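== Fold encoding ==
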Amino acid sequence: MNYINIIYLYSCITISPIMKSTHEIEERALLTDFQSGDRMAFDKIFRLHHASLVFFANRLIVNYDQIDAQEIVLDVFLKLYERKESFESLSSIKAFLYISTKNSCFNAIEKEKVRLKRVEGFTANFEEPDENNILSQIVLSEVYKELYQALELLPEQCKIIMQQLMEGKTPKEVSQELDISVSTINSQKARAISILKKRLSGAGIALLLLYF
């Protein structure tokens, strides 16, 4: 049984005919107001589901402290509002909120795994707590600094695209967020890498290639 069916069945707990009729009228009115863009209707839906969605998200990302459940849920509500005219019932809104939160959490976990793997790979040789390790950490920090300073000098569109790609986003995700084509993303990435290779040291280039 999928999430939509579970949520729908949970929403259909038996109540008296009079209460059910009144409840249905209130739900239709709330849905109509929400679809028309009414702020109070959106706020009511937000208050109805926000706390439970944050709890749900926190349960999914319990082992990943760097992921913010509040941020994920707020982004899901933004997506809900952008699609407000496409919902046929409050049950479908509830299903959308839970499914979107689940998917966003799983996507965030995958990106965090990629980030952690890159960090672990690059710092694999810097684990012993001695003077050499401290020096190595300083060198590593300076390499990161060199790379990010070089990114700041890129043309604006190149810089924005590279920053988002280095956060773990795919070209498709970046294209949707910036409203430009995937081919443009790839061409700008190639342009940025070409520029950076001319500005970075050997260590800086090695760090760059870990991302791409």
